[in-house]
Design goal:
five-stranded mixed beta sheet; 307 residues; D-Maltodextrin-Binding Protein, domain 2; 3 domains; alpha/beta; Arc Repressor Mutant, subunit A
Length: 307
């Protein structure tokens, strides 16, 4: 039986499916150079060029277009056969995937509540960026604010949230003139960098407008951080004042926006949702697992009682 190395086939399949070596490398957990090298091994074995490489882009050759469907189907068949052998283990384990900003302050407490009721059920909590291939990674629940990236699956609305100014009482006494947050110096504002793909998340400029003040702070003078959880942690240490989702604040025992309910909030532009993978033909023997997934989903929706 003449076969190219398995890793070279995996690299080729992932590169085609994901549209490039960089995305394939991220999924396979290797470098883009390693993916390129593996694809070259497959090409050397076959004596055919599978990709045309032009200006940092990839295009399938005729040989690549002929080869890809067969390789993709073969790797999927191997995956399905492996899943069947591991079915008993997978049936009793629930995989929940979420984003970093939700994991510690909200998803983890929900998982803890679920485990107290179902201590015999295995759980795996993954922290991943969107999008996630739910079927290929055998994910049971994906919690995210990017529901539009999963149109082929089932989206369950969980909650909407708003950001509020958060700072400590000591910070207020030392830095705010007459407790007026609108006069906080630019160097004491903590700015959350939501990522390059987002353009409509709340900013301090928008918050000042909501508070009745036309002000555009100089971001260069403040503290810029990646993620709401980090912004909250720094504000909790008195490093400044941050715009923090109410969910993050409420999940911290005993924490409330300070001063309570005095300052306006800004709604986040996207609702948080749970994505449930839509299988073509879910097996009847997985009904118990489906019920457990629904029970975990109920624990996730308890955020409504906190916010």
């Amino acid at each position: 039986m003449r076969l190219p190395p398995l890793n070279s086939l995996k690299a080729f399949e992932a590169s085609v499916r994901l549209g490039g070596f960089t995305a394939a490398a991220s999924e396979l957990g290797v470098s883009p150079a390693a993916v390129s090298m593996q694809v070259k091994k497959a090409e050397d074995f076959l004596g055919k060029t599978l990709f045309r490489r032009t200006n940092n882009s990839l295009h399938l050759t005729d040989a690549g277009r002929y080869y890809y469907p067969t390789i993709s189907d073969a790797l999927m068949s191997i995956s399905v056969a492996t899943d069947q052998l591991l079915e008993n283990e997978a049936r009793s384990r629930i995989v929940i995937s979420t984003i970093q900003s939700l994991a510690e302050k909200w998803v983890a407490p929900a998982v803890s509540r679920f485990r107290s009721i179902h201590p015999d059920i295995g759980l795996e909590l993954r922290i991943e960026s969107d999008p996630v291939d739910l079927l290929r990674t055998q994910t049971d629940i994906r919690v995210t604010s990017e529901g539009h990236l999963y149109p082929q699956h089932i989206s369950v609305p969980l909650f909407t949230d708003s950001v509020f100014p958060y700072f400590t009482e000591q910070f207020q006494k030392q830095n705010l003139v007459k407790e007026d947050l609108t006069k906080a110096p630019d160097n004491l504002l903590i700015h959350t960098d939501w990522g390059e793909q987002y353009a409509s998340y709340p900013t301090w400029s928008a918050w000042f407008r909501a508070a009745g003040t036309a002000r555009t702070p100089d971001v260069r003078k403040g503290l810029r951080v990646g993620g709401a959880a980090v912004a909250f942690a720094l504000a909790s240490q008195g490093a400044g004042v941050a715009l923090v989702p109410k969910m993050v604040i409420s999940a911290q025992s005993g924490s409330e926006p300070y001063p309570q309910s005095e300052w306006p909030g800004l709604p986040l532009p996207y609702a948080f949702v749970a994505i449930l993978p839509k299988h073509a033909a879910p097996p009847h023997e997985n009904r118990r697992k489906a019920a457990l997934v629904q029970a975990l989903l109920s624990n996730l929706t308890q955020i409504d009682e906190q916010t």
